[in-house]
Amino acid sequence: MGKIIVEQGDITTYDVDAIVNAANASLLGGGGVDGAIHRAAGPGLVEECRMLGGCRTGEAKITGGHDLKARYVIHTVGPVWHGGDDGEAEKLELCYNNALQLAAAHDCRTIAFPSISTGVYGFPADKAARIAITTVRHLLPGLPAIDSVYMVAFSRDAEALLNHALKEG
Ligand code: ADP
Question: Under CATH, to which class is 3-168 assigned?
């Protein structure tokens, strides 16, 4: 069965089959990890994204990786945190679920995720880390072609939260 690997790093440098982008609904680029992925992928990415007609919260859409080492970028739109009573947890779960299913459908064996929604969208990082790990862990047995899922934390603090969630399970 596939394994979950927690690491601190810059997701744009990952040499994997697919990296996941914490995009916004327009899919036309933004700040944070989205901006970094678009800068590293080059202008071909936004051109391809323009054809996709946006993306709803919790959905996932796939493009090529363009100038990235990754073969694909899987764009998903995380929920904006509104205090926790607005289905935020379920929507975040859907992001990991849909992104991972889409990766498997494209024969990806190695995938890297950022900590979706934990930047500008304000999702508490500890809760988000738990949802990320439990959702991926739950799906892996049903997706035997997936070999490795990297959970890429941008900070040491985020890395510690992910590692804590990984040990808890
Ligand atoms: P959202 O809008 O979904 O909150 P952000 O891009 O603002 O998305 O933040 C999501 C997470 O991605 C944050 O934890 C942020 O620290 C992290 N992040 C930003 N740049 C990178 C990067 N180059 N590699 C990995 N993670 C990153």
Answer: alpha beta
Cβ distance 100 to 133 under 8 Å? no
> Which residues are 152's β-sheet partners?
7
Question: Within a 10 A sphere around the Cβ of 4, how many other Cβ atoms?
Answer: 18
- pLDDT tens column, 26-82: 999 999 999 999 999 999 999 999 999 999 999 999 999 999 999 999 999 999 999
Helix axes 32-41, 43-50, angle to 10 degrees: 110
Closest CA to 150 of 141, 142, 91, 159: 159
Q: How far, in Å, is the centroid of ligand 1 from the Cα of 154?
A: 7
Based on the residue annotation, tell me whether 34 is a catalytic residue of this protein: yes
Supply the residue whose CA is at minimum distance from atom 26 of ligand 1: 154
- If you take atom 6 of ligand 1, which residue's CA is the nearest one? 32
pLDDT, tens digit (0-9, with 9 covering 90-100), for 90-133: 999 999 999 999 999 999 999 999 999 999 999 999 999 999 99
Report residue 49 CA to chain centroid gap: 16
Strands, E assignment, 36-167: 60-64, 72-77, 110-113, 148-153
